[in-house]
Every structure is written in C-alpha cells, then in structure tokens.
Amino acid sequence: MGELETRLMLLEDRVAIEDALLAYYTAVDSLGDLDGLVDCFTLDAICDLRDLGLQKLEGHDAIRDFFRGVFEDMTHHAHHVTNFRIARIDGDEAEGRGYVIGRAIGRSGLKVFVHCHYDVRFARTKAGWKISFFDEGSLMPLGDEVSDLHAREGVG
Amino acid sequence: MGELETRLMLLEDRVAIEDALLAYYTAVDSLGDLDGLVDCFTLDAICDLRDLGLQKLEGHDAIRDFFRGVFEDMTHHAHHVTNFRIARIDGDEAEGRGYVIGRAIGRSGLKVFVHCHYDVRFARTKAGWKISFFDEGSLMPLGDEVSDLHAREGVG
Amino acid sequence: MGELETRLMLLEDRVAIEDALLAYYTAVDSLGDLDGLVDCFTLDAICDLRDLGLQKLEGHDAIRDFFRGVFEDMTHHAHHVTNFRIARIDGDEAEGRGYVIGRAIGRSGLKVFVHCHYDVRFARTKAGWKISFFDEGSLMPLGDEVSDLHAREGVG
Predict the structure, then answer these.
(1) pLDDT score for B145
(2) Cα–Cα distance between C47 and C84 in angstroms, integer?
(3) Which chain A residues have a beta carbon less than 8 Å from that of B4?
(4) Could you give the domains of chain B?
C-alpha cells in the first residue's frame, strides 16, 4: 500500500470510528435495540460506569443485562455527542475521547440532564470498528438522578 | 477516475454534505436570511415537520413562507447540531441523520428548549450538495412550546 | 506534490484544525492546565470576549492571566462544541466558526448555562495548527452570569 493510500485509509478509519461511537448512542436512544447495542462492543469489552455511581460491565452479557434494565426503566432518551477526538489510530486499535449531553425521562417521572466525558478504545474487527473499552464520568456534579434511576442494577 | 481518487472524493463529499446541513442551521439561526435558507434546499425539497406538530412544507415557496413567520416570531435562535452521520453516499444522492438541540425565545416571551432527531436526504446539484428531504421529530416529550410558537403557520 | 496529495492534505488539515479547537476546550475544561491552554494559541493571538461582557485578550500573558482567574473562580466546566465548520483553508491560514454550549459552576455557587458562537482563525506553525484569533459572542440573552463570574478580571 502506497503512502497516499495509507494516509487515505487513516481518514477513512476516522469516519468509521466516529460512526461506531454514534451507532452506540443510536442504540442507547432506541430504548429497545439490545442486539444492536451489544453489537457495538467487542465480545470482551469493558464498559466502566463507576464514575457515574454505576457498575463496571464486562462482556456482552453484562452490557446487555444492564441496558435491558435501563430500557425497561426509561421512556425517553436523548444523548448528544460532542467534542469527539480520535487521539490515536495504531493499526487495528484506536483511542478517542469526547463528551455527551444526556437527557432522559424515567417511568418513575425522574428527569436526567447530565454532561459526561468518556475515554473510548476501539478495535478493528472483521465486522468493522467496535468499542473495546468505554469509561464514562461526569463533568458536572451528579445529583441523585443516575443512581436512583438504575438502583435496580445494584449500584455500588 | 482511479480508485484512490474515488475514495478521496467520498471523503470530500462527506465534508460538503455536513457543511450543507450546517449551512441550513446557520440560516435558521440568522433569523433573517431567507434567501440563504431556501438556497440550502433543492427546488422541490420536502421539509416534514409534522412530528413536531407543524407542517409538511413542499418546495422553496412553502419553506420560505414558513420561515418568514418563524423569523418574525422569534428574537433568539440557537440550534446545536450533534450526532450527524452520513449513512449512504450513492453518486449524486446521500442520506444522513442526526440530532439538534434547539433553544429559542419568541417575541411573546415563550422559551423553547427541544431535543430533536432528523433524517435528511441530500442531492448533488451544480451549486453543490443541497437538502432534498428533511424529516424532523422530537426525542423528548414536546410541551406546547412548538405548536404555540408557530400557531400562525396553521399548525394541524 | 500531486493533485491527489494536495486534496488529501486539505482533509488532513481539517482534522488537525478541529483537533486544535477541541484541544482549547479540553484545556478550558481542565480547570488547571494553563500551559496547555496558552499553547493552543499563537504567541500574539487575540481572544476577543467583549461580546460576552468580558475583555479582549492579546497574547499569551493576557490569555494566561484571564484563565488563571477563571480557573480559581470555577469548580466545574463543561463546554460542548457543536456546528464547527471550516470556511477556508489557504496555505498556512484557516478560518472556521462554530457554537459551544457552556455549563459552569463557580465557587460562589453561581451557575452558568450559555449558548455561544465564535469565529476562529488558525495559523499553521512548526508545532501544528494554533488559534490566532478567537471572537466569541452569545446566541441567547446573557444574564448577569458571565460578567458576575469574572468580575475580578476587570470587566469593561
């Protein structure tokens, strides 16, 4: 592969990686597409939500179980992704970080409005780029919103 | 055109398509540039706002009339575009989707704060990519804000 | 440099320019990284915040002094960058514009929630693209939040 093609492929990878992140949030906001959601992650992916007062999820089953509960609890989701930067693409691995504004309404009437940051690692698989690691925290003080919301998930 | 150039042009198209979408929101937030606003659309474009309790606008004249009313009613607009993904580019047609956070203040004092999603189709014209179809809805429950706001437009 | 490489480099520049902008907001939200923050600007950069009721900052020292005060005053920052468009890349200069949603909490308890627009000019330096000019204003009416917040900076 010539030098120009290598550079071109890096740009194409950037697009695919950002699309992989947005696919995750599209699934989160679907409030139903569990298959599509876990498909955004590698089989052994880690999704670390402890900085939000939630759990560290390891692997598809844990991620699926967590979001099954979320989807049962919530009536509305809106996750606005901003500030996404790819810090590194190195062959079949990549790292990025960004922010998300999350709005949500729960069946209990609880309203969520959060401003989060995340670090993400991606892996190139035969089925495209997928999230292998996701670590999210809050930029602003969290109220009791998030932990109340997902109490059923056994928040630590 | 060689394979590399074809791939390069796809990336250039992505930039141009996202710019076409942002040009539309720049015009919306100008609260005055009706010519610039309709110029973001193809002549026979459809702008379907029925999921917001508003109208289905067909063609430049309908779009211009609607936004003339909006611009007369509003004193402030801020539309923050997020999560834009291009799902398909196929020759001179493209499809994308995304979100927008809309803040607005009306002359009546009404304050709007909405979280919307949209599906967009684009067409490549001699004057660049333009919106040929725009279908917007809300991710969160709408209050009476939007329909009150544009009551003069003959909301159905 | 062939035509394809010139076009490729323009796309690479777009990525680098957006990253330069996001690096600035990353530093702003760090609430501590003054060196990283001033490093986002050229030595003689102008950062014009007068439309926010604040100062026109000229050069690294003025920018550093201003943000030293901001970082002392604030406990939380979240700046969500949206709508960024590069309007022009011309050799070693570029221009862009975009929006930002700013949330902040001050030690005084003051809460900030603003929707801003900015025009930016960038210069290519030996250390990459840097901001040479930044002019920010508000899309929505400003309360007393911003000027109160930075009163110590000698708001005009």
Answers:
(1) 55
(2) 18
(3) 4-5, 8
(4) 3-153 (3.10.450.50)
3-state secondary structure of C84: strand
Residues of chain B positioned with their CB less than 8 A from the CB of C82: 80-82, 101
**H or E segment and range at residue C57:** strand C56-58
Beta-ladder partners of C113? C103
**What six digits make up the tokens of C31?**
């609430």
Question: Quick check: C45 pLDDT over 50?
Answer: yes
Residue type, A98: G
Tens of pLDDT, residue by residue over B64-79, are 999 999 999 999 999 9
> CB distance C11–A11 less than 8 Å?
yes
Q: What are the start-end ranges of the H helices in chain C? A: 3-30, 34-38, 60-73, 145-149
Residues with Cβ within 8 Å of A28's Cβ and at least 6 positions away in sequence, in order, are A37, A67, A77, A79
Beta strands in chain B (DSSP E): 41-48, 56-58, 74-90, 93-106, 111-125, 128-138
Cβ pair C81:A80 closer than 8 A:
no
Across the interface, whether the CB atoms of B7 and A12 are under 8 A apart is answered yes
What pairing do the DSSP bridges indicate for beta strands B74-90 and A41-48?
unpaired
What is the nearest CA distance from C156 to chain A, expressed in angstroms?
29
The SS3 of residue C68 is helix
Burial B22-42 (b: 16+ CB within 10 A, else e): bbbbbbbbebeebeebbebbb
**Those residues with Cβ within 8 angstroms of residue B59's Cβ, 6 or more apart along the chain or in another chain:** B43, B44, B45
- As a whole number of angstroms, the distance between CA C120 and CA C140 comes to 20
A122 lies within 8 A of chain B by CB: no
What pLDDT digit, counting tens, does each position of B99-118 carry?
999 999 999 988 999 999 99
Tokens of A125: 């698989």
Q: Return d(Cα C4, Cα B151) in angstroms, integer.
A: 52
Cβ-defined contacts of C42-45 (< 8 Å, 24+): C42/C123, C42/C125, C42/C130, C42/C131, C42/C132, C44/C132, C45/C130, C45/C131, C45/C132, C45/C133, C45/C134
pLDDT at C40 over 50: yes
Q: pTM (2 decimals)?
A: 0.93
Judge whether residue B155 has pLDDT over 70. Answer: no
All residues of chain A having their beta carbon less than 8 Å from the beta carbon of residue C22 are 83, 85
Mean model confidence pLDDT for chain A = 92
Task: State pLDDT tens for residues B76-103.
Answer: 999 999 999 999 999 999 999 999 999 9
pLDDT of residue A151: 46
Mean pLDDT across A20-42: 98
